[in-house]
Design a protein that fits this description.
Blueprint: H1 8-34, H2 38-63
Helix pairs in contact: 1-2
Transmembrane segments: 16-35, 41-60
Keywords: Membrane, Transmembrane, Transmembrane helix
Protein name: LPXTG-motif cell wall-anchored protein
């Protein structure tokens, strides 16, 4: 069953933004660990958290049941 929402563009932006943030976070974390750069590793981990958060918000929003 496909959920129909009036703000489909916002949900799409959250999904794509979350995926991009996770990919960049993985890359920055790997580079930071490889070159022993604490700042780069921290930024990568933060991007991973933000990306996961955006995807979780999107999933929660999609699974809400209308009252």
């Amino acid at each position: 069953m496909v959920a129909q929402t009036s703000d489909g563009h916002v949900l799409l932006a959250k999904k794509l933004g979350g995926l991009v943030a996770i990919i960049l976070g993985c890359l920055l974390t790997a580079v930071g660990v490889t070159f022993e750069s604490g700042g780069t590793t921290l930024v990568g981990v933060l991007l991973l958290i933000v990306g996961a958060g955006l995807l979780v918000l999107k999933i929660v929003r999609r699974n809400e049941r209308p009252s």
